[in-house]
From TrEMBL, chains A, B:
GO terms for cellular component: mitochondrion. GO terms for biological process: NAD+ metabolic process; NADP+ biosynthetic process. This is NAD(+) kinase. It holds the Pfam family NAD_kinase. Keywords: Kinase, NAD, NADP, Transferase. The gene is Nadk2. One of its GO terms (molecular function) is NAD+ kinase activity. Its EC number is 2.7.1.23. It comes from Casuarius casuarius (Southern cassowary). InterPro entries: ATP-NAD_kinase_N, ATP-NAD_kinase_PpnK-typ_C, NAD/diacylglycerol_kinase_sf, NADK, NADK2_mit. Belongs to the NAD kinase family. Gene3D superfamilies: Probable inorganic polyphosphate/atp-NAD kinase, domain 1, Probable inorganic polyphosphate/atp-NAD kinase, domain 2.
């Protein structure tokens, strides 16, 4: 790592801080005679979840997403503790001060000084010819030789199963968002080959360039199908409206200023165009992109839509109860919470919606 | 392909059309007793360019980018013929009608009914510890076993060369843009493994999920260094201002309408907010994103900047003569025209600028 110029000392320190914070949480629980199983990412599975009365994630928002990804029981609370506040926003975690005084959080839970919060999640149905409903876990850094073979066998098995075209309910629930887009550009296929020392066997790692437009058709709330070309489609929950969706949709101060300047030039602005007005308008616009995690509605956003300059009546963004997408992509994926991926190529049809039965149970402590 | 649900008949037809169009161009040239070498992508190299007095690309915009990528002589004309008008915009090519009547274009060239157009291009310097100035061609669909080994040897050789930290002028000139961003998210590492029938040997192909924020520091026109976190940095030419840059920066009708509504709510709009005003403002704003390919200036754009809601004075977009970027990325690339890629990881520093000596010579036919 140091040879690459990475900050090894910094990584080590953050690991030390994280480990200390985890110990604090575990000790606080055991001091209350609560039975605790401490599991790492790779050991965390549905059996562990079944054993638990509640699940606490210790890490950042990504760890919380991982923790939630294996919980399908609406009444099993999942609580996030942010053990890496320097690096993680902790949107999905308890406020940072409980990281160092977790007993305070436990006391509030005991005294009922909290309310339940149900974060709505998205479910996915997949159908069509040649679909592959096998999820792939993106949190694995690399596949071992054994996993290559297993995936290979899965793929061959899938070829036989692709005759069954009825809608499959995928074994995932999106807490933040589902993102659909081309993951591999066959024009921009192989980026570079590097053999790293930390690979158990000498496996090439391929890096792929990012950009190739995604083609698909979209129908919102059972409306008419519309062909689109873009950098991808994001469908999020209220929770996810603060995440990637926010970054796709938010407008910059600079852009608002220029838009208002142009409107003024057309004679349409009578207030002085000062920094204060620009900031207000920018903030109001960006605030309108956020909504409550408990609202059972989805926000879909087209990322970098490719359109011509003719006035288009189709919306770049909107709320909906149901989104259907037909892939016309060459090599695309549906990615759930940045953690699980499904092939989504030409011929596949996804139905995306919220069922309140899939909500995730979390807590909001009183302040 | 058909098993995957791809439109094999459609692909075949487009190939037929392309082949017919190429024959038309070659025949038109030979009818004028012009010596023609017809080369495919893999045979196109610098020796061929040296042999030629002029280069004609037959394909879409991508083929034109490829053709230009091997021309470094300011006085060697490169002309694009769009043989795939159904699928390619042809921004970089002659107007589509010359595809079917190429002799007409030749006549104009003979009679001087054209002017030279010099499309400015971007050059890149790379320096820093552990850098790897080896370019990787993204237009290869896959590397053969032999190329794996060669790249491997290159990599080992590079490890010895990384002591030389002085700025390397990279052997590329960007006609559209340089894009810098994380190409591999180590959190979202391996997407899926599929073994395809058309691979000569049984090689796994890896697909990677798209999203991991890029960390870097940027200095514009030798200004102060600024830390940024975003979905990537795009630095384009006037030519490229119509390409990916445009899609990153353009504003949607819907967004302008909402911004003007909010401004009106704050009492700042006296014109009626009608569709016509919204369209005018949208068009003016989007037009302002474009500029002449011959202007020796670059447009940098931050894609999906990650900022907090405090008023930020740094611009999301702007013109500049020079952009310097220090990578703080884990696994990033600098991608030139979507075709060539360079590692750009923590420790690497890129200097990005336009030198008019690097301009590409093209033609604008009189209409």
């Amino acid at each position: 790592l140091a040879l690459k110029g990475s900050n090894y000392a910094g990584l080590l320190e953050r690991h030390r801080i994280h480990t200390k914070n985890v110990e604090h949480v575990v000790d606080s629980l055991r001091n209350e005679r609560i039975e605790v199983r401490l599991v790492k990412r790779r050991e965390y599975n549905e059996e562990t979840v079944r054993w638990a009365d509640a699940v606490i994630s210790a890490g950042g928002d990504g760890t919380m997403l991982l923790a939630a990804s294996k919980v399908f029981d609406k009444f099993k609370p999942v609580i996030g503790v942010n053990t890496d506040p320097e690096r993680s926003e902790g949107h999905l975690c308890l406020p940072v001060r409980y990281t160092h005084s977790f007993p305070e959080a436990l006391q509030k839970l005991y005294r009922g000084e909290f309310r339940w919060q149900w974060r709505q999640r998205i479910r996915l149905y997949l159908e069509g010819t040649g679909i592959n409903p096998t999820p792939v876990d993106l949190h694995e850094q690399q596949l071992s030789q054994e996993q290559y073979s297993r995936a290979h066998i899965n793929e061959r098995f899938q070829d036989q199963r692709s005759e069954i075209s009825g809608p499959h309910l995928l074994p995932v629930r999106a807490l933040n968002e589902v993102f659909i887009g081309e993951s591999l550009s066959s024009r921009y296929a192989v980026c570079s080959v590097s053999f790293r020392e930390n690979y158990k066997s000498c496996k090439p790692s391929f890096k792929f360039s990012l950009h190739r437009a995604s083609y698909y058709e979209i129908s919102v709330d059972d409306g008419p199908w519309e062909k689109q070309k873009s950098s991808g489609l994001n469908v999020c929950t209220g929770t996810g409206s603060k995440a990637w969706s926010y970054n796709i949709n938010k407008v910059a101060n600079q852009a608002v200023e220029e838009i208002l300047k142009i409107a003024k030039k057309h004679g349409g602005l009578n207030l002085p165009l000062n920094a204060e007005l620009v900031q207000k308008v920018t903030n109001d616009y960006n605030d309108s992109l956020l909504y409550s995690p408990e609202e059972p509605k989805m926000l879909f956003s087209i990322r970098e839509p490719i359109v011509n300059r003719v006035f288009s009546s189709s919306r770049q963004r909107g709320f909906s109860s149901k989104v259907c997408v037909r892939s016309r992509c060459w090599d695309a994926c549906m990615v759930v919470d940045g953690g699980t991926s499904f092939e989504f190529n030409d011929g596949a049809i996804a139905s995306i919606l919220i069922d309140t039965e899939d909500a995730l149970c979390t807590v909001l402590l009183e302040e």
